Amino acid sequence: MNAIATVEPLVRARNVHKSFDQLEVLKGIDLDVTPGEVVVILGPSGSGKSTFLRCINHLETINRGSIEVDGEQIGYRLRKNRLEKLSNNQIAVQRRKIGMVFQQFNLYPHMTVLQNIIEAPCGIHGESRKAATENAMRLLERVGLAAKADSYPRHLSGGQQQRVAIARALAIKPKLMLFDEPTSALDPELVGEVLSTMRDLADQGLTMIVVTHEIGFAREAADRVVFMDGGHIIEQGKPEDVLGNPQHPRTRSFLSRFI
């Protein structure tokens, strides 16, 4: 009888705590994300969603617990039973596995779309300009913006800028993509084009953790929905369960605003 193969999580968070001075924002988060899974994190403002996302990428340092991505503890290494902080260069190497898209597009205004996308592969990761450019053009084709390669960000709509930001994050060939409310800064009519790009990425099997208020996206694209409140994970499960039949009163109260 063959043993059942178990898939190791790509992301493993254990007892994650994070405080800012006296304000405790994360109060013991445990979460596994398997390769190819799309996890959508919902919750009210101030619940700790974005802070947790930033901790995964070590943009915020945690006070207690651990976060591993692809088997490596982010930001630290264990030596002689003690955790040692990694150097900035070592952390930069770890971040090659993780792409992140923020609320604001953060494109360099003085660079063309193409230059924005190849900046990190060439300048940080040492990729040749030819290889980086070829990959960037494939990515622009993927997000529907190949014709805008030579445009500057100021000539693009907000939705187009965010799609460029997604292509830029993909240019480092990450194993994991983090999205921190990627549509919150967009006009309502531009939200759909960004969500469509994200759905395509989900369909292609990219591992994604998405913080968003877009309930429709969570319902259609997520493998799992996680509801956070007060620095805790309150409820999680399949979209049809959490969104269609939430068990916790706080989840029901939050979702009632969108009905």
Instruction: Summarize the biggest pleated sheet.
Output: 6 strands, mixed
Mean pLDDT: 93
Please report the total strand number as a whole number: 12
**Based on helices, strands and strand pairing, what is the structural class?**
alpha/beta
Radius of gyration, taken over Cα atoms and rounded to an integer in Å: 19 Å
| Helix and strand pattern | EEEHEEEEHEHHHEHEHEEHH
Helix tally equals 9
Task: Give the N-terminus to C-terminus distance in angstroms.
Answer: 49 Å
Beta-strand percentage range = 25-35%
Q: Characterize the overall form.
A: globular
| Low-confidence sequence ranges | none
Percent helix: 25-40%
Reading side by side through the largest sheet, how are the strands ordered?
8-9-10-3-11-12
Report on this model:
This protein has 259 residues and is α/β, with parallel strands linked by helices. The chain contains 9 helices and 12 strands. It has helices spanning 49-56, 88-94, 113-123, 129-142, 158-170, 188-203, 215-221, 239-242, 249-255; strands spanning 11-20, 23-33, 38-42, 64-69, 72-73, 76-79, 82-85, 98-101, 176-180, 207-211, 224-229, 232-237. Helix 3 packs across helix 4 (129-142), helix 3 packs parallel to helix 5 (158-170) and helix 5 runs parallel beside helix 6.
